[in-house]
Amino acid sequence: MAEEERPAARPLKPLFSVGSRKSASGSQSLAAETAVALSYGGSSHAVLMATPADLVDLAYGFSLTEGIVRRPDEILGVEPVPFTSGIDLQITLAEDRSAALAARRRSMAGPVGCGLCGLESIDAAMRPVPVVEGDDFTMSTDDVDTAVAALSRHQPFFAKTRAVHGAGLFRPATGLVAMREDVGRHNALDKLIGALARQGEAAAGGAFVVTSRLSVEMVQKAAVAGAPVLIAVSQPTALAVETAEKAGITLVASARGDGFSVFSHGSRIRQ
After folding, report:
1. Is the pLDDT at 94 greater than 80, yes or no?
2. I want to staple 72 with a disulfide (CB 3.0 to 4.6 A). Which of 119, 168, 197, 253 is the partner?
């Protein structure tokens, strides 16, 4: 499967800078943002604004978390096709999944900040989440701080641009297992989930750590992936907490190295 990669950052010079930014008046690295279509059987299903890197991972992660496929091997191929205005990810599914998708075909198109735009019904947006196993998995409070610090150290695009989100899988015994970045928080998490699926790496026995707030769709994606713990540097929404409770996920928020809050299934965090 080919990867269509475009620069994830590009240099641009501001017209002028003032105050503390006056010394940064030269070219600055800005995050790239590209329209990415996800097409199944030649028909566009979703259009996302995304960082044009790790797009095959995005195709796998999106297909899994949206319930289009149940397993990675139900995706037979991903072919990124470049256009002047963006990239079309042409995804080939196993025959039974193509038939299932045709039966529930819906249109979806949304900007970076919204993962639910285009859903045709409230029921589709509020779909039931699977219950995550892993009550035997625990991590210490120090592990939470270590996970956040590890993610911060392994974000090359963020270091250049200060304008992308990161999502990683952290295991206390081994550290950061995988990490992906994107201008969209949902995309970053989908890319991570897709990368893990392609590598045959399970999210169970680890914690997802993300650089964004926790909205309900972030919890839904973590539940599909089977991550027992979801750590974020910002706060959750009330609905995200309710959904995490139902899904059996430990929700850790405002984790920035100086403390954090646990909102659900707190027995997994050892104090």
Report:
1. yes
2. 197
